[in-house]
Amino acid sequence: MTVIATPKYAIGQVVRHRIHPFRGVVFDIDPVFDNTDEWWNSIPEEHRPSKDQPFYHLFAENETSYYVAYVSEQNLLLDTSGDPIDHPEVGEMFGELRDQKYVPAGQFH
Asked: Which InterPro entries does the annotation name (predicted)?
């Protein structure tokens, strides 16, 4: 029997990578790894996370660029800086930032 972990983070939450210097907004969650073998094999073996954990799609940014990242739960931490994410696609999917979480577009109450 396969046990599916409950995701620790939710859509709209602002997170940061545990090791690499980037942060982002969660816009989708896979309950377990759901990417290509090519992507998986591109990660150095000593850093490869377990496939049987939630993986997060992020609108990510670092000091020089914006991109979409796919990150395992074990490599994420909640970002408590309160700073907004400047990624240009955040505004297409989300509204305002409240308590380290973006409100999904259309849910402005």
From this structure: Clp_protease_adapter_ClpF (IPR053189), Hemimethylated_DNA-bd_dom (IPR011722), Hemimethylated_DNA-bd_sf (IPR036623)
Identify the three-state secondary structure at position 67.
strand
Identify the helix (H) or strand (E) that includes residue 88: none
Length of the chain in residues, anyone?
A: 109
Distance CA 22, CA 71 (A): 11
Is there a contact between 64 and 89 (Cβ–Cβ < 8 Å)?
no
Distance CA 74, CA 96 (A): 27
pTM, 2 dp: 0.91
Cβ density class 25-55: b for 16+ within 10 Å, e for less: bbbeeeeebeeeeeeeeeeeeeeeeeeebbb
